[in-house]
Amino acid sequence: MKLIFLGPPGAGKGTQAKILTERYNIPQLSTGDMLRAAVAAGTEVGKRAKSIMDAGGLVSDAIVNQIVSERIDEPDCAKGFILDGYPRTVGQAEVLQDILKEKHTKLDAVIELVVDQNALIDRMKKRVEETIANGGKVRSDDNPEAFAKRLVEYTEKTAPLSKFYSTTGLLRKVDGMTPVKDVTKAIELALK
Ligand code: AMP
């Protein structure tokens, strides 16, 4: 099963992707997590990405395309994977098509979590509160300024992917405003 999760920041892509990885026994490939790991490790990619990520902007297509292309060659992706946070631009989606063609494989579905944008800031604040309560480290882009920029980037650069994938017949829109369990059920139904 090869899936993409689409949706604005705070839509629940990470949460749902995590649940599905257990159900289907395939890895969640979060470009955000991979970039944060590169920043933490102080790699060249991490150094180039850090300030862009902190400000809520998008890292260059070339960087993320390469990260994903290399990651899906790893053995744990042989049975499938869930892309969470990639592609984020039409350019990335086009490159992904080429990458998958080269590897003689293709996507099974694109799940778009449809949410009310007004609820997203509150979800981000809740995530920050929960992270603090659990003694975790708050993401450097989970603050009102960077979050607002992430929403603008989503609307301008990522939202057009919904149309891009609807023309391929792969798009499944799911209501992301219901409780987590119900969203999971709706996704499973959409994948049948
Ligand atoms: P996320 O964890 O998916 O919210 O991503 C956090 C940040 O990582 C984003 O705001 C971007 O700066 C960067 N990022 C993650 N995925 C991508 C991508 N596919 N293209 C460009 N930048 C990305």
Describe this structure in words.
This protein is α/β, with parallel strands linked by helices and 192 residues long. It contains nine helices and five strands, in the order βαβαααβαβαααβα. A five-stranded parallel sheet has the order 2-3-1-4-5, with helices on both faces. The relative contact order is 0.20. The structure holds adenosine monophosphate (AMP). Adenosine monophosphate binds next to helix 2 and helix 3.
Low-confidence stretches: none
Order of helices and strands: EHEHHHEHEHHHEH
Number of helices: 9
Mean pLDDT: 96
Percent of residues in helical segments? 55-70%
- Envelope shape: globular
What small-molecule ligands were found? Answer: adenosine monophosphate
The total count of strands amounts to 5
Order of neighbouring strands in the sheet with most strands: 2-3-1-4-5
Give the CA-CA distance, first to last residue: 12 Å
Largest sheet: 5 strands, parallel
Alpha-beta classification: alpha/beta
CA radius of gyration: 16 Å
Q: What fraction of residues sit in β-strands? A: 5-15%
